Amino acid sequence: MVCRLCRLCGLAAALVLFVAAGGAAAEPVDLELVLSVDSSGSIDNGEFALQREGYARALTHPEVVAAIRRGPHRAIALTFIEWSGPDIRTDVVGWTRISGGADAEAVAATLRSAPRTIFGGGTSLAGAILAGAAAFEANGFEGVRHVIDISGDGPNNRGSSVTAARDAATARGITINGLPILEDDEGLALYYRDFVIGGPGAFVQPAQGFADFERAVRRKLLQELNLSEGIGADAAPGG
């Protein structure tokens, strides 16, 4: 009888722990940010390295770290996803809280060391948006703002409609910002403005080529972080 009671008590305790864990509150942050980066066949290995290094340097830049620390929660959460075709993607950095320089350096170290896993498959901006929107679900964080950053060097040429994907994401209160790389297509910034970005405060921040990528990423991050602090910023129309 005693053993049976012990077993029942043990099961009850386990159930309490299970319910408590399942109902745990998400950690508050100022911004949940999906960094969604083109790894299609048009991105050669040199350009790929410039993208990775650009994000690593931008995230660890003192201005960016200081901006993260100025928010009400003094922290953001981000994930870094590389993609090409509609169902081709790699989570290079899973959801990570950043509240200072050490956290940013750890993400940068991963970006510099992780191997490239995607080399082709087309350019599905729609797939990137849909994957980015899904990434916010049950990620352990509760951000004041939800933003998908999409960087790439070409228009949507695979999968579903990019505007349909954009509209589905923005209907959920998600902002989509664009970082078009104008290496071979000067009109890509207008394409991103008209078809890709959308949601509260959405904007386009072009890179004038891969060599300009770090500057563009840093400027984009600072604008997003300033919006998270409630500081106004110029926004391009879209969506």
If you had to describe this structure to a student in words, what would you say it looks like?
The protein is an alpha/beta fold and 239 residues long. It has eight helices and five strands; from the N terminus they run αβααββααβαβαα. Strands 3-2-1-4-5 form a five-stranded mixed beta sheet, with helices on both faces. Helix 2 (45-60) runs antiparallel to helix 4 and helix 3 packs parallel to helix 8. The radius of gyration is 20 Å and the shape is globular.
Helix count, per DSSP?
Answer: 8
Sketch the topology as an H/E string, one letter per element: HEHHEEHHEHEHH
Portion of residues in beta strands equals 15-25%
Q: How big is the Rg?
A: 20 Å
- What does the average pLDDT come to? 88
Number of strands: 5
What is the global morphology? Answer: globular
Strand order of the largest sheet: 3-2-1-4-5
Give a quick account of the main beta sheet: strands, pairing sense, barrel closure. 5 strands, mixed
Query: Would you tell me the structural class of the helices and strands?
Result: alpha/beta
Observed structural traits:
disordered C terminus; alpha/beta; 5-stranded mixed sheet; 44% helix; globular; 5 strands; disordered N terminus; 239 residues
Write the layout of secondary structure elements.
Blueprint: H1 2-22, E1 27-38, H2 45-60, H3 62-70, E2 76-83, E3 89-98, H4 101-113, H5 125-135, E4 141-152, H6 162-170, E5 175-180, H7 188-196, H8 213-228
Parallel strand pairs: 1-2, 1-4, 4-5
Antiparallel strand pairs: 2-3
Helix pairs in contact: 2-4, 2-8, 3-8, 5-6
